[in-house]
Amino acid sequence: MAPNKLAIASHLLDHKIRAASQAGFAGIEIVYNDLLTYSQSQNIPIHAAAQKIYTLCQETNIEVLSLAPFENYEGSTTPLEARLALAKHWFEIARLLHAPFLQVPSIFTADCARDEKTIISDLQQLADLASSVKPIVSIAYEPLSWGTNCSTWESALSIVQRVNRANFGLCLDTFHEGTRLWGDNASSNGLQMDAEVRLRDSLRRFVRDCPRDKVFYVQLSDAERFDPPYSLTHAWALPGEAKEFTWSKHARPFPLEVEFGAYLPVVEIAKAWILDIGFEGWISMEVFDRSMKDGKVSPETAAKRGVESWRKLQIEMENKSRL
């Protein structure tokens, strides 16, 4: 079995931490809004909430992997000074949680800068702010499949190389690779044109070109095939929202959960990203299953599903490696 430590993203924060620990997870990604909700439920400031959650993680033998997601930062029309002030607050919370990473998804708003010089400069200043106080927080930059300027691992790696900071690297998510190059929730067969070739070539280039030390951690999730296909009249559709964003919010089960409609080639993607390059860092389950949001699935059940998903995925990756 792979040596990677396993984490899961947070919802129902304190309850989920206990459930994750009991199921065998080693870590958790803290979602900022979940921490904010927890602080409000406890009627305490968010800094105090972060300290309480860190204490709970220590008691349950859970490490905090990251604080997420610091969204729509690079190239935003908001004044840079205001964005960096907000980032400073997030770094304070990350350090209270003892989180080594701040997850920064690629910007996905339409009204943002498109020139590379601005994007790189903004991200360099973010990385420098993150390293200006000890302990250093590292920036895990994630290409979203609906990102405005960056939507693939290759475009994200190019940005990482130009930012050129030791604490700036990649967060890779199987959902985004799968929905950017292979799956299509608006297609009758669930596939993009030339899906297999495009994905195969991308993964081959990844193994050849991506430095292992710039992959900070890998997130795993699958995607449910839409039936009927997505359209603007779909019940989940929102005006101006990318169809991949809609997909992400409602239909991201754990990898290989075919009983919940999962169909992405997660095994092939994960094998390239983990086994083929010898990645031994953190693996995190980041799923957005609507049944979890509406309370139909308990944190205990979700945690067990995540552990079982990782077990099955490891077996399938090893089987493919033997072919």
Describe the structure.
This protein is of the alpha/beta class. It is built from 12 helices and 10 strands. Strand 4 (101-105), helix 5 and strand 5 form a beta-alpha-beta unit. Helix 2 packs across helix 3, helix 3 (46-59) runs parallel beside helix 4 and helix 10 crosses helix 12. It is globular, with a radius of gyration of 19 Å. The two termini are 17 Å apart.
Main attributes?
323 residues, alpha/beta, eight-stranded parallel beta barrel, two-stranded antiparallel sheet, 12 helices, 46% helix, 14% strand, globular
What's this entry about, in short?
The chain has helices at residues 13-23, 32-42, 46-59, 80-97, 116-130, 153-163, 174-181, 195-209, 243-250, 266-275, 290-293, 299-322, and strands at residues 6-9, 27-31, 63-68, 101-105, 138-142, 168-173, 215-220, 251-252, 282-285, 288-289. It has 323 residues and is an alpha/beta fold.
Give the averaged pLDDT, no decimals: 94
Order of helices and strands: EHEHHEHEHEHEHHEHEHEEHH
Give the terminus-to-terminus CA distance.
17 Å
The count of helical stretches stands at: 12
How much of the sequence lies in strands comes to: 5-15%
State the total count of DSSP E strands.
10
**What is the alpha-carbon Rg in Å?**
19 Å
Would you tell me the structural class of the helices and strands? alpha/beta
Largest sheet: 8 strands, parallel, barrel
The rough form would be described as: globular
Oligomeric state of the chains?
A: single chain
Low-confidence stretches: none
Question: Widest sheet: strand order?
Answer: 1-2-3-4-5-6-7-9
The portion of residues assigned to helices is 40-55%
